[in-house]
Specification:
Blueprint (H helix, E strand, L loop, with lengths): L3 H18 L22 H15 L19 H22 L5 H17 L14 E4 L5 H11 L6 H5 L29 H20 L11 E5 L1 H5 L1 H13 L4 E7 L2 E2 L2 E2 L8 H7 L3 E5 L6 H13 L5 E6 L22 H10 L11 H7 L2 H22 L1 H12 L22 H15 L3 E5 L3 H4 L18 E3 L4 H14 L4 E7 L3 H13 L5 E5 L17 H6 L5 E3 L4 H13 L5 E5 L12 H4 L4 E5 L8 E5 L3 H14 L4 E5 L3 H5 L3 H7 L7 E4 L8 H4 L4 E3 L10 H7 L4 H9 L3
Parallel strand pairs: 1-2, 2-3, 3-7, 6-7, 8-9, 8-10, 10-11, 11-13, 12-13, 15-16, 15-17, 17-18
Antiparallel strand pairs: 4-5, 14-16
Helix pairs in contact: 1-2, 3-4, 3-5, 4-5, 4-11, 7-9, 7-18, 9-18, 14-15, 16-21, 18-19, 23-28
């Protein structure tokens, strides 16, 4: 059992955390500790020192309103709540201990708020994790995923059985080391990289606000759910969270409620070593409502009151700062970095069981806790059934709106939607592919109900504005142009949240291609979590000209070709741009990147929407028997150069095949027979040209082939001069081809 001295220490540590993060006007000390004790309370002198510490710091911090608890009645007997909370803690402890790997500290500290959310507040159907009108929950601090697995297990989700808990972090299990939405039904988004989750939650809340504004009627509210999140100090430190939360405040996402696990511990130790800002003031400045729950360990009524208040604030998101003790209940490791990312160890597990009075075997959930949570299965079924009846009535009264919403819910695209995409002939005027992209975006927005998106303050340059719609803003959430501001990383993660809200929501986001460096983390999560975001990336090469090497992507195309489950398109003209969009819209579990030109390009003979579907295809060929003298391969703006070089070589009597390699990944999916028809193995005379790094082209041109590209940074000059100086020319292609003869 905890000693009197350890109890006093725990009280002092808690008080220091409270004083460090601000105080309310009352300045009262919560009567609780991270340790259970049957001994005496802290001495009077110890309590006076704690109070003096709080009073000293009160003048240094702004006043933050604490949750008012006196008006809220507990909804469940406190003894079963205690038992349920400890069930969550020990499921996490036992799973981490068995795996000898994981993060037990967060689940132990966050169990009370998580219990109240999943047991008392959230609306969901555990037997249908994909019910549309469910509340969404995001564990932004994804390392604490055993908290979420324990909740899903108690709530009755089929995806997390007892055996799954015992297989935590093991090969093929449904309980991986960080939450994965594609692996475990009940997980909304994939989290782990800190800050991504809360940013995804902003996207989920945006989706709800947008759909509610578009489809709800005064007599029929069919879109009505909340997005909840738990984030930690690490999420707060990552810049992406500030980007996304700034937008959440600007947009007034009133159904976004985030719980900040304020335990002042990170991997390296106390956050005082690197993180001393006033989070409350920052979020208030971002336009959030802020509440402070001082007793996050046992203050159940404070947590309930905070949630009730947050729901009453409808014009802005709410941050509930919950001061907790990481590793609550562990006599020797609570409130320390040692409980953050490692198993407690056999002796400390036993000590924690004794400390919290937990007599049960590992992974055992007491029968009364099971019985208590079992109600969520019938209650969830009723919630969904009631909503389905409401939607059926809505469908009868508002058939057009219902059809659109159903398309978004199911992901089933309207019949013939692809016919809206523009087509071009060689006689059509040449244009930059960024402009041709805008034609496609606007065509799609007219026929695809869930199509929406925007740019990182570059809409007029990326050409991404939907002309038939206004801006999604706090007062006009029904509109479909999203203004992300200069926030690429947040933009990408918010778009992931939108894509993962409903199968038929198809978000796009845009910036200059080189600035994918700012949001690569979010783009990787798109690929990993199977979020079919469309990334519209303009200014794709040195062809952007005078802005110079800071803005000229070189290695970017190759890096995205290396990223799994990502389609990297570089279209050469209008037909290829339309073809790329056709694929991108249909690939709902794979993100697509479109690298688009700033400079004007011609509409080339031989290109087609159908050809793009193959990834690589022949646009011209004067050979016979599948035996050209040379194969010239290009992408984007350099496909024109390959075509011009082919004409020069043909005049000299050579047979030449010109191949567009618009998307390597799609070509890789084709049959061996098709690949042989485009790149016959007997023809080793191959030349590729692309105004980018040549990295990776070896697998296309083969060991004897030649690749023309740029393996250095660019320069500032007009585009034609840059192409000449870097050797991205017809002459260079012709010379390379002649080296084979």
């Amino acid at each position: 059992m905890a000693s009197t001295s350890s109890l006093a220490l725990s009280q002092a540590l808690l008080a220091r955390a409270i004083s460090h993060h601000g105080s309310d006007q009352r300045g009262s000390l919560p009567a609780f500790t991270g340790l259970k004790s049957t001994g005496s309370r802290a001495s009077a002198s110890s309590r006076r020192r704690i109070a003096q510490s709080m009073n000293k710091n009160r003048s240094l911090r702004p006043l933050v309103r604490a949750a008012a608890v006196e008006t809220v009645e507990p909804t469940t007997d406190s003894s079963i709540v205690d038992k349920s909370v400890n069930s969550i803690r020990f499921l996490a402890i036992d799973a981490v201990e068995k795996a000898k790997s994981g993060h037990p500290g967060l689940p132990m500290g966050c169990a009370p708020m998580a219990h109240i959310l999943y047991d008392e507040v959230m609306r969901y159907n555990p037997k249908n994790p994909y019910w549309f009108n469910r509340d969404r929950f995001v564990l932004s601090a994804g390392h604490g995923c055993m908290l979420l697995y324990a909740l899903l297990h108690l709530a009755g989700y089929d995806s997390v059985q007892e055996e799954d808990l015992k297989q935590f972090r093991q090969w093929g299990s449904k309980t991986p080391g960080h939450p994965e939405n594609f692996e475990t039904p009940g997980i909304e988004v994939t989290t782990g990289p800190l800050g991504q989750g809360i940013s995804n939650a902003v996207g989920l809340a945006l989706a709800e606000k947008h759909l509610a504004a578009r489809f709800n009627k005064p007599d029929a509210e069919v879109v009505d759910h909340y997005t909840y999140a738990i984030l930690g100090d690490g999420c707060q430190m990552e810049g992406i969270s500030n980007e996304a939360c700034s937008l959440a405040g600007h947009w007034g996402l009133g159904k976004l409620i985030a719980f900040y696990d304020d335990n002042h511990i990170s991997i390296d130790g106390d956050t005082e070593i690197a993180f001393t800002e006033n989070v409350d003031q920052r979020f208030e400045a971002l336009g959030w409502h802020v509440i402070w729950v001082k007793n996050g360990n046992t203050g159940y009524d404070e947590i309930r009151a905070a949630i009730k208040e947050a729901k009453a604030v409808t014009d802005k998101p709410t941050l509930i700062k919950v001061t907790t003790t990481i590793g609550y209940g562990s006599p020797n490791k609570a409130n320390s970095y040692s409980v953050h990312g490692a198993a407690l160890g056999e002796k400390e597990v036993e000590a924690t069981r004794n400390n919290l009075g937990w007599p049960y075997e590992p992974f055992q959930v007491p029968d009364d806790v099971k019985s208590h949570w079992s109600r969520h299965t019938p209650e969830g079924a009723t919630l969904e059934s009631d909503w389905s009846a409401k939607f059926a009535a809505y469908e009868k009264k508002y058939p057009e709106e219902a059809a659109e919403l159903k398309s978004i819910i199911t992901g089933e695209l309207p019949a013939g939607w692809e016919k809206a995409l523009p087509t071009y002939t060689p006689e059509s005027p040449g244009d930059a592919t960024r402009n041709l992209s805008q034609q496609c975006l606007n065509a799609l927005a007219k026929v695809v109900p869930g199509f929406l998106g925007g740019s990182a303050d570059l809409a007029s340059s990326n050409m991404t504005l939907l002309k038939a719609f206004g801006d999604f803003q706090k007062a006009t959430p029904e509109e479909r142009n999203l203004r992300f501001g200069v926030r690429e990383h947040g933009m990408g993660a918010i778009s992931n949240g939108i894509a993962l809200h409903s199968p038929g929501l198809i978000p796009y986001c845009a910036t200059f291609f080189v600035f994918t460096d700012y949001m690569r983390g979010a783009m990787r999560i798109s690929a990993l979590s199977e979020a079919g975001v469309i990334y519209v990336m303009t200014h794709d090469s040195i062809g952007l000209g005078e802005d110079g090497p800071t803005h000229q992507p070189i290695e970017h195309i190759a890096s995205f070709r290396a990223m799994p489950n990502t389609l990297m398109f570089r279209p050469a003209d209008g037909n290829e741009t339309a073809g790329a969009y056709k694929i991108a819209v249909t690939k709902r579990k794979t993100p697509s990147i479109l690298a688009l030109s700033r400079q004007k390009l011609p509409q080339l003979p031989g290109t087609s929407i159908e050809g793009v579907e193959k990834g690589g295809y022949t646009i011209s060929d004067d050979s016979s028997g599948n035996k050209p003298d040379v194969i010239l391969i290009g992408t984007g703006s350099e496909l024109e150069i390959a075509a011009q070089a082919a004409e020069v070589l043909r005049k000299e009597g050579k047979t030449v095949r010109v191949v567009s390699f618009v998307c390597w990944e799609l070509f890789d999916e084709q049959s061996d027979e098709y690949k042989e028809s485009v790149l016959p193995s007997d023809v080793s005379a191959r030349v590729s040209i692309e105004a980018a790094s040549t990295f990776g082209w070896g697998k296309i041109v083969g060991g004897k082939g030649k690749s023309i590209g740029i393996n250095s940074f660019g320069a500032s000059a007009p585009a034609p001069i840059l192409y000449k100086e870097f050797g991205i020319t017809v002459e260079a292609v012709v010379d390379a081809a002649k080296s084979f003869f």
